[in-house]
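HUMAN: Ready with one sample?

ASSISTANT:
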Amino acid sequence: MNPNVQRPRFKIRHKLIAVLLLLLALPTLVVGLVSYNVSKSETDKLIESKLQSNVRLAVEMVGLMDASVQSGAMTAEAAQEKVKSMLIGEKGQDGKRPINPNIDIGPNGYFFIMDAKGTLLGHPLLEGQNIWDKRTSDGYLYIQDMIAKAQAGGGNTYYLWPLPNSDKEAMKITYAELDPKWNWVIAAGSYMMDYNAGQKHILSVLTLTLAGCLAVGAVVSWLFAQHISKPIARVAARTRRIAEGDLSADALDVRNRDEIGQLAADFTIMNDHLQSLVVHVQAGAEHVLASSQELSSSIDETTKASRDIAASVQHIATGMETQSVSTRESSRAMEEMAVGISRIAATSSSAFDASVHTSEAAEEGYRFMQKSVEQMNRVSSTVAELADVIQKLDRRSKEIGEIVQVMTGIASQTSLLALNASIEAARAGEQGRGFMIVAGEVKKLAVQSESSAQEVIALVDAIQADIGYAVRSMTKGENEVREGVALSRETGESFKRILDATRSVVEHIQEASSSAEQMSASSEQVAASLQEMARITETGASGTQTILASSEEQLATMEQLAVQADQLSRLAERLQDAVAKFRT
């Protein structure tokens, strides 16, 4: 951490004032809060008690009215209306009842009467309505809770309800009790704020008392803090001047007769002792600094000369060693290159032989492919001729079918003529008997001819179907043969391109093989020369390393002396700088 950086300060005077005010305010605040809570609790109890008393008075009133009804002095309806008028107010033409000003249950408080099902029997505004399902804004069924507590002997219900002529909600309290005579649920309620005027007065008094105590305590605390903090501030200011190197100030003037006064006196004595110490240290620091500077100058000159010698030897040794390493690496690289070139030459020779065989095989394949193309062309021609023959056969079969159709017609006509002849012979009687026999034979021949014609038609149809299938197959075969011929031609062209590329590869491989053999012979000569150079360089590097080791030992010794002299010089300078800060 930098000591010169000013940290944010909270003065001791402020701390004392804050602590004293806290000690004054905390007990006062605690007492005030406890008193306010106690008074609030008692006020709440008085509110509950007042509402309970009013409702019970109303129940007693119902009892008196019921006694009048029982004695016959008035009817039940009149008695009930009188109770409602006394508790709430007279019912107007609009069905509303103005709140009776003679009954005080708060500025916004009033009585209302329900039955056990939540129907309002008496209310300033909602008389006759059923409010059993009435809820607050948070969903609380406060009417059902009132009726349940009334039936259980009476109780208070707390709930939030909007203020008159406003959307703002406030806490409301209602006490409800069941009347045993008429089974009425009589309730009286008002807002809690209608009764907390006393609580507000207590809170304001407590606030004013706390403010007054804090004001008086602040003045007293400030005076006490000044008495304590002023001498300490003077000592702190003098300490800051000493930290900045100023020891020439006069003695502190602190009149406190306590520990703070004793602190100021002891601080003055410490200041005097520091002045004496700084004077002696300044004299010694100047003498040490002069001696260390002379020693450091001498050592620097000697170290510089030794460093120049060591640097030159180091440069030579580094160059020799680098050259030796490079020569060895070059020799190994040339040996590896010679081996690689030999392998390349052997591989090139093998590749040349393989490429020659490949070229010969490609030429032979090309010749076979040309023969295949010629054969496919001949097959294509044969298939085309066969397709023409089958198509001719198809046409001939159709012509045969037409002839058979004609024969069938003739047989039918012949059969019809034989039938007519038989009819005419029958008419002729005995003279036409011989003619009838001939007509019968003719008819048999006609039937046989027609039967044979039908068989021929069936046979011709089968032949035509087979010929049609053959035509389709030949057409498909002819198309496939054409595609095969085209593919054979393309394959022949590809073989020709492969043959040309193979011949070019053979020529390049032959050239590469010759070059590799020449490179192999040259690399062996270069490797031998590099090995001889590496041997000579290693001998020179060994001698240079011996000289370099001696120079480095001498330089290390001089550098140690230089470091020690420099440290002594810097120590003397720091001591002188530290003492120079103080003004005596």
Observations:
- The mean pLDDT is 75.
